Structures are given as structure tokens and as C-alpha cells.
Amino acid sequence: MVKAVNPHTATTNFILYSLNANGMTNPVKVNHFNTVIALRKPHVFVVNKTKTRSKISKTLPCHDYDIYEEPSEPADNHHIFKWGVVVGVRKDV
């Protein structure tokens, strides 16, 4: 069973935001992600499947977060890159 709650009425003080991005090369997608982070202010965020060899951490809200990034790996199939993960931990945690 899954229960969705409004973050402002949740009983816990710890907020985790996770996104299976399926690629973070699109500026519109990055902008939307940054907007969500600015509004929700999670303690930790995780972005999976960045699918880019370039580091995207410079486009994320790095002033409030310590960001750890593992770039994607070249792929042999139809994708240019696969995998890739970014973790941001708010500096006051």
C-alpha cells in the first residue's frame, strides 16, 4: 500500500527527492528539476540515468548542496551513453 502526503504535512522532517531522468541533456528538463528542488528543498536528491558523459552538477543548485556525480558510460547499442547518477546532500544536513 502506498500513501501520498503533502510534504508540508508529513510527520517526518527528512525529505528525499529521487528522479529517474532517462537523460539530463535537455535544458527544459534540467530547469524543471531545478524548480522542483527550489520549491521542495529536499535534504537529499538523487538523479538516476543522467545518460550524459558531461557533468551536469554545474547546472544544479550547487550553492545549497554538496553534489556527488558519477557520469554515464558509453553504450554499444542505440543509446550514446547509459547510467549516470547525481546525489545532492543539503549542506545543513
List keywords for this structure.
93 residues, alpha+beta, 4-stranded mixed β-sheet, two-stranded antiparallel ribbon
Structure characterization notes:
The chain is an alpha+beta fold and 93 residues long. The chain has one domain (16-90). It has 1 helix and 6 strands; from the N terminus they run βαβββββ. It has a 4-stranded mixed beta sheet, with no helix packed on it. The protein has a two-stranded antiparallel ribbon with strand order 4-5. The radius of gyration is 14 Å and the shape is globular. The model has no long low-confidence stretch (mean pLDDT 82).
Query: Terminal Cα separation, in Å?
Result: 30 Å
What's the number of structural domains?
1
Mean pLDDT, to the nearest integer, reads 82
Main beta sheet = 4 strands, mixed
Helical content (DSSP H or I, runs of 4+): 10-25%
How many DSSP-defined strands? 6
Strand content: 25-35%
Structural class: alpha+beta
Q: Note the total helix count.
A: 1
Shape: globular
Q: Numbering strands along the chain, what is their spatial order in the largest sheet?
A: 1-2-6-3
Residue ranges: pLDDT <50 for 5 or more in a row? none
SSE pattern: EHEEEEE
Structural Rg: 14 Å
